[in-house]
Design brief:
single chain, mainly alpha, 3 helices, about 0% strand, coiled coil
Length: about 260
């Protein structure tokens, strides 16, 4: 960014000061010129009045007329001098006013110059700050652009992952359903097999009980002989009697 030159806001004040200086110089020159002209005219008339009188009587009237005319001229010159003095006084007052105005203008010009210097320094500081902010803004814009690009790429990747996840969920659901159906079928078959095994065990248990009963009956007959109940000859006394009662009890327990 190029720095623009500050506008010359004090130029009108400087121009006014220069104009006042020129007017003051012109008034002084005019006053000096008029004073010199009047002084020269008065000196010329005085020299004329100091000339010797003409000896001829015939020229007296003409001389008197000339002198009267010169007197009127001198009066006019004196009036002019009085007017000139008045003008000079007026010009002096004007010059004083102009000098006061010039002094005030110069003070204002100095104040304006100081303010302009401060403004230029502030402008330079603000320009430097603006350049810094512009650089930061440019860096931020680049970072934002990079972040936006990365965000768009992440959104695209996320969309792809979401689509892949949906496909995976669909496949997983299908696989889980197939496995669940397979497990249910296996559980059903196992339950049926368990039920069949229970029935088989019950049948075997019944068969075992029947075989035990038959075996105990057969053992009783083999050991005691006699009838079908297997209790004959076991009611004696003594050791044989006690042993017979014991076996009779076991036989009854087996038959039960």
């Amino acid at each position: 960014m190029e720095d623009k030159a500050p506008s010359s806001s004090h130029d009108p004040t400087q121009t006014l000061a220069d104009s006042l200086r020129k007017d003051l110089q012109a008034l002084k020159s005019q006053l000096e010129s008029q004073q010199k002209e009047h002084h020269d005219e008065i000196e010329r008339l005085r020299e004329f009045w100091t000339l010797p009188s003409l000896p001829s009587d015939s020229d007296s009237a003409a001389l008197q007329n000339v002198r009267a005319e010169h007197r009127r001229t001198i009066d006019l010159i004196e009036e002019g001098m009085a007017s000139l003095r008045t003008s000079r006084d007026t010009l002096s007052l004007r010059i004083t006013d102009l000098e006061t105005t010039l002094s005030t203008t110069q003070a204002e010009l100095q104040t304006t110059t100081n303010s302009l210097t401060l403004a230029e320094a502030d402008l330079a500081a603000r320009t430097a700050e603006l350049q810094t902010l512009s650089a930061v803004s440019s860096t931020t814009a680049q970072t934002l652009q990079a972040t936006t690009t990365e965000l768009e790429a992440t959104k695209t990747e996320l969309a792809d992952l979401h689509a892949l996840n949906l496909d995976f969920d669909t496949k997983l659901s299908s696989t889980l359903k197939k496995r669940e159906d397979s497990w249910r079928n296996k559980v059903k078959v196992l339950k049926e097999e368990i039920a069949a095994q229970k029935q088989r065990i019950e049948v075997l248990e019944d068969e075992r009980k029947g075989m035990v009963k038959a075996l105990m009956g057969f053992w009783g007959r083999e050991e005691f002989g006699g009838g079908d109940d297997g209790f004959e000859g076991v009611d004696g006394d003594g050791e044989n009697g006690r042993e017979g009662r014991s076996q009779k009890f076991r036989y009854r327990y087996a038959r039960a």
